[in-house]
Amino acid sequence: MSGIPLNLVGTNPSAGVGGVHQTMHQRKGYGAGMQVYNVSPYEHDPKATAFINEDFGTDMSQNVAFGGSPELIFDGGSGGSEWSGTGNSDWDFSDGGKVTLGHGGNNSAALFQDSGTIDTSSFSALTGDIDLDNYTPATQDILFQFGFSGGVLGDQIGINSYIDTGDFSGQSFVIPLDDFNLSGATVNEFTMTVQRSGGHNPHVKFDNFTIQETGAPVIYKVQPEKGVKYHVNRIILLMSAPLNTTLSDNSMPNISASDILGVNVTNGIVFQNIRNEEVSFSATFRKLSDFFYVGSKIVNPPISDGTNTFLYLEADFDDKPIILNGNNNDRLTFTISDNLSSFVELRASVRGFEEIRNE
């Protein structure tokens, strides 16, 4: 067989089409033929990466519970010095100790005003309770924003990114003040505004809105460098806590789904997938069943030494990996804002591969 080599560069290798290498061949008894090899311009480099915080490293078993002297915005009139609330007839500010949005239309807003001022540089987070009675997250959101004497400050924050929108039993939330981009501004107003493009008008109860002073939420993240795309196939959570799960003459471990290995988590461990600086997915974990609800599973039987129990949780995305683009600052995060020091171990990581450009 004789060959005539012919190397061609693909139509657009930089876009991922790849270089094309062709060779002409003449086989006895056959006419001329062509062999074509399509060579990808990328290599896939397998990788495992831990969620890391710049202060605590990979260790998520931290005590970051709130304390100090918080500033109360409202708690439905059940105590404390509250900000005054006003709004149209969609809003009820004295509904059994809660503030209630009753079937609010688009742009329906409640305004809360403080008789004094608050220097946000001395505070860390906004916390509160929310109970979704009638709510369609695909077409609805409740937007929060701070202000000063009639002017708005910082960014509007949608509550959908900080709660489990499928939980209609009542839940708490935590929003770091940094997310409002206030830059330490002085505030004396807070607004809640309905954003609705479809579905029944939302019916939502709010309570215990507080600006926390000490104990800032701590964020652990996985974020690729500029110029790198990270394909995430697995998210792994390793946890161990002082819990004896051994049952005599019974092979089923004694693990409750209503807490996390015996640890009560009030505010929740918040997971977020942030793409192009927008939260594309958010989930809050306060109990073990919350992990199962979003598709996580226990891999291998739990391990117990009679004192501590070790659990390995995994969520896989083999069919459609999560792709993080470093050029867009895409990232995955876990945020904690509770006392999690009861855990002997609490760490998270991802597995997948990075796209590496062939030069």
If you had to describe this structure to a student in words, what would you say it looks like?
This protein has 359 residues and is an all-beta fold. The protein folds into 3 domains: 2-40; 44-64 and 217-357, Distorted Sandwich (Adenovirus Type 2 Hexon, domain 4), CATH 2.70.9; 71-212, Sandwich (Jelly Rolls). The protein is 2% helix and 51% strand. The chain is built from 1 helix and 25 strands. It has one helix spanning 288-293; strands spanning 2-8, 19-26, 32-39, 42-50, 71-74, 84-87, 91-95, 98-101, 109-119, 125-134, 140-148, 151-158, 171-176, 186-196, 203-212, 218-222, 229-241, 269-275, 278-285, 297-298, 303-304, 309-316, 322-325, 331-336, 345-357. The strands form 5 sheets. Strands 4, 17, 20, 21, 22, 23 and 25 form a 7-stranded antiparallel β-sheet that branches. Strands 5, 7, 8, 10, 13 and 15 form a 6-stranded antiparallel β-sheet that branches. A hairpin with a 2-residue loop joins strand 11 (140-148) and strand 12. The longest helix is centred in the C-terminal third of the chain and has 6 residues, at 288-293. It is globular, with a radius of gyration of 26 Å. The two termini are 32 Å apart. The relative contact order is 0.20. The model is unreliable at 13-17 (pLDDT under 50).
- The beta-strand count equals 25
Sketch the topology as an H/E string, one letter per element: EEEEEEEEEEEEEEEEEEEHEEEEEE
Question: Can you give the helix content as a percent range?
Answer: under 10%
Mean pLDDT: 87
Total helices: the number is 1
Radius of gyration: 26 Å
Q: Which structural category do the helix and sheet elements fall into?
A: mainly beta
Low-confidence stretches: 13-17
